[in-house]
Amino acid sequence: MSLTAHPAPVDWQKASYVAAQAADSRINVELETEGMVLNIGPQHPATHGTLRIVVRLDGEEVVWAEPVCGYMHRGYEKLTEVRTYPQVTTLINRIDWLGHFANEVPFILGAEQLMEVEAPPRAQWIRTIFFEMARIANITLFLGDMGVQLGALTPVFYAFRDREYVLNLMEAATGGRFHPNYDRIGGLKEDLPRGWVDECHGAMRKVRDFCDQLEDLLMGNEIFQTRTRGIGVIPASVGLDYGLSGANIRASGVDWDLRRDEESPLAWKEVDFKVWTHPDGDSFARYWVRLQEVREAASIVQQLLDGLPSGPIMSKVPKIIKVPAGEVWHHTENPLGEMGYYIVSQGGLGPFRCKIRSASFNNVSILPWLLKGVYVPDVITILASLYFILGDIDR
Amino acid sequence: MGLIDKGKIPKPLTWLLNTSRKYSLWVYQWGLACCAIEMGAAFGSPRYDVMRLGVIPFPASARQADLVVISGTVTDKMAPPIRRLWEQMPDPKYVISMGSCANCGGPYWDSYSVTKGVDQIIPVDVYVPGCPPRPEALLEGIVLLQERIQNEDMASRWRGEPMHVVA
Question: Which terminus, N or C, of chain A has the lesser number of Cβ atoms within 10 Å?
Fold first, then answer.
């Protein structure tokens, strides 16, 4: 028995219609472009690491984009379950490797909340200073790198040069140039070395100079303006739907900063700072907001240095740290956005479960929506302006 | 070229070839994780300036590179692309493994998704320890590699025999 169906009777009216359409389309055949799938990454200079983005192109226009994550997945959440609390800080330093110290703080604050320990005021102030310095070290590199993505190689040299001042200070106080691991439950590892405060004032002046320099060098540039203004616009409502945070959502005009809006034991409430927003929501706005944030961070550090209280840096904590059973959620405004830890403790030496909410994962989740309809060169500027760290996406 | 066909290169010629090769290393930056920033500081910052060692850090693709610096955590998902890019590099090629993660897994030694050491996938010439290593440490790794290139026996390499390093 044959399984082939009988051929359908020919509908001549329809066939002539199809023929006419085909004749019309033949006229346009030279203007047609074939769809093409372009694979950006996993090793590409524009992706800051190992993010892979698959885009389908029509000519030079993106019709569909999909980020492929997981090339840097290191299993943090599982690893925290087999580490003790002091060991976890070593590990989580490396989630957002540019904002090193800022990763430790929410975890330590959460654990302190469970243990009902509070660090002495001096420790809280120094924590805040280092938090803001991590922000500076993180975002200065973005400010330089954005230039590289647009074809200006010089800014990144300036960024690396001035970042070293901040890293040197970090190293002087903590012993770690890159991953300080300075935070302890109940305080800090050790006090600041002599002469550090004066040095830090000098470095903050240099950071401000760097911001002025970059504003002159890059932001007024016509090529920079043309390639960033009106490109990659995120309306505030869409950004909130996708869970964007940090400078990305502030650049869309949402005035939301956990440093100011959230009750925190850190010393942000003691200082006077402005949360910058920009109404445009395009790549330029994201750059501009971050530039202002570095300035604000430098000013916060200087204010804190002026009023640094004296006293101990460690409160009374048992030698072997056991966190009582309970659950806690603590989040802070990290350089890349909102970062939080949901710690579940069962009274053991380490967390029973630790959920890490990192900013970049949500920030790149908007990419399929955002990249639709843009041109290929703009993909690069949009990726650079969203500013993600691969460790922060994949954890 | 009779001597070279027989696999015997005069010593001065070997010296000249090796000296030329070691001061014109084109390095492909394989930035994976935290170490990529320190590698960027070593290669891209005015303070450390790798070009004074004769290393040029900007080849357009791996096919133009002599040296690759694997800097950062190698995950099981990333391992096949690393192998493939290494295969695309022209011979003679060298590999520097930078940082604890690329050396042995580092702080992720018990992670389910991390390859414990890039030397499981590709042969490594120089290991740079540290988490992450300072830029100076990477520069020293490059100097060590240059010493190694200087002492290579070119003839054996051209015959396809395993490399002998004369100390």
Answer: N
User: CB–CB of B132 and A179 under 8 A?
Assistant: yes
- The answer to whether the beta carbons of residues B53 and B96 sit under 8 Å apart is no
Give the integer Cα–Cα distance in Å for B135 and B46: 12
Residue with tokens 């991953």: A179
Q: Which of B2, B5, B7 is nearest to B154 (CA)?
A: B7
| Residue type at A164 in one-letter notation | E
Q: Measured at the alpha carbon of residue A384, what is the angle toward residues A382 and A389, in degrees to the nearest 5?
A: 125
Architecture of domain A76-394: Orthogonal Bundle (1.10)
Listed in sequence order, the DSSP H helices in A150-229 are 154-174, 196-214, 222-228
- pTM here is 0.83
Distances (CA, A) of A124 to A184, A261, A270: 11, 18, 11
Helix (H, G, I), strand (E, B) or coil at A148: helix
Classify burial at A46, counting beta carbons within 10 Å of its beta carbon; exposed 0-12, middle 13-18, buried 19 or more.
middle
Nearest beta carbon to residue A161 from set B37, B40, B47: B47
3-class secondary-structure state, position A339? strand
The Cα–Cα gap between A161 and A270 comes to 31
Which tokens sit at A120? 């002495």
Dihedral sign from CA coordinates of A204, A205, A208, A209 = negative
Are the beta carbons of A357 and A331 closer than 8 angstroms? Answer: yes
Comparing A68-77, A265-274, A361-370, B27-36, the range with the smallest average pLDDT is: B27-36
Nearest to A129 by CA among A204, A239, A66: A204
Please say whether the beta carbons of A380 and A146 come within 8 A: no
- Please list the residues that pair with B29 across neighbouring strands: B69
Residue boundaries of the structural domains of chain A: 76-394
* Cβ-based burial of A328 (10 A; exposed 0-12, middle 13-18, buried ≥19): middle
SS3 call for B13: helix
Amino acid at residue number A15: A
Q: Give the confidence band of A175 by pLDDT, cuts at 50, 70, 90.
A: confident
ipTM, interface predicted TM-score of the complex: 0.79
Q: Of B34, B45, B77, which is closest to A178 when you measure between CB atoms?
A: B34
The answer to whether A340 touches A332, Cβ cutoff 8 Å, is yes
